[in-house]
Design brief:
With 122 residues, the chain is an alpha+beta fold. 24% of the residues lie in helices and 30% in strands. The protein contains three helices and seven strands; from the N terminus they run E-H-E-E-E-E-E-H-H-E. The strands form two sheets. A five-stranded antiparallel beta sheet has the order 2-3-4-5-6. It is globular.
């Protein structure tokens, strides 16, 4: 079963880097919305620079009812949900892209995945 990865803010993040990567500024908050499944499930990512260190607020919700997308947060509701697997796959892909741009980093993971061929030992 696919699970959402955990991410944190990079320590080298700047306001200019967020603006260059599509975030919108609202006072000291930077906000972006990414659609994960059609026009129904979306990711709202907000980075707050008010305190000494920036904080990240992340919600995955159903846009039509403005409520959390429950399978993303609750293990019991996942089961064999095809929409959940698409949502999590797109979430992980988008957040990994933000990692390559230096905005986030994945918890429990060091480095960037490279697909190098291993030399064959005869």
């Amino acid at each position: 079963m696919i699970v959402p990865n955990k991410y944190e803010i990079s320590k080298k993040i700047t306001r200019e880097k967020l603006l260059r990567n599509g975030f919108e500024q609202y006072y000291s908050h930077f906000y972006i919305r990414k659609w994960l499944y059609k026009d129904v499930v979306c990711l709202d990512l907000e980075i707050d620079f008010e305190d000494v260190e920036p904080h990240m607020f992340l919600t995955v919700k159903r846009h039509d009812s403005k409520q959390y997308y429950v399978p993303f947060y609750c293990n019991e509701t996942r089961l064999n949900n095809k929409i959940y697997t698409q949502v999590v796959a797109r979430y992980n892909k988008y957040m990994d892209m933000l990692c390559t741009k230096g905005i986030l980093w994945r918890k429990g993971y060091k480095g960037i995945v490279t697909h190098k061929r291993r030399k064959r030992i005869a």
